[in-house]
Amino acid sequence: xxxxxxxxxxxxxxxxxxxxxxxxxxxxxxxxxxxxxxxxxxxxxxxxxxxxxxxxxxxxxxxxxxxxxxxxxxxxxxxxxxxxxxxxxxxxxxxxxxxxxxxxxxxxxxxxxxxxxxxxxxxxxxxxxxxxxxxxxxxxxxxxxxxxxxxxxxxxxxxxx
Length: 161
Hints:
- The protein is mostly helical.
- It has helices spanning 4-12, 25-46, 52-73, 80-106, 112-137, 141-159.
- It has one domain (4-159).
- It is built from 6 helices and no strands.
- Helix 2 runs parallel beside helix 4, helix 3 (52-73) packs antiparallel against helix 4 and helix 3 (52-73) packs antiparallel against helix 6 (141-159).
- It is globular, with a radius of gyration of 15 Å.
- The model has no long low-confidence stretch (mean pLDDT 92).
């Protein structure tokens, strides 16, 4: 577990893949729980209607379900723990630089440069998901990216974000 943060960073840098993570349900539960708590706190700062926990719960459930279904369709359910851990763990890594940027833009401190940086980080997160799905689903790079784009669009549609 002490190598986990370094492996997640290496996945974000396209140096490792989900197969380099342990196939361990405890790791997945911890990553989902930490990601849920951090995301709920952040989203709670960004929206005012009190639905942060619901939105983050929907997004988390969608991520797990989408991953399970994609792996099932490709006959790779044995890769679920590692794939889901990679998706949730890399989202957590990216939450570190994204959080202050989102809070700055929310407070009116964000100009076009911050918006551009957020767009770059969002595109990078899609590329990371493409990298993860490419490995997990045994697809070419373009196939992994297409799955990641579909995942992102469906996630936005479901959460309404």
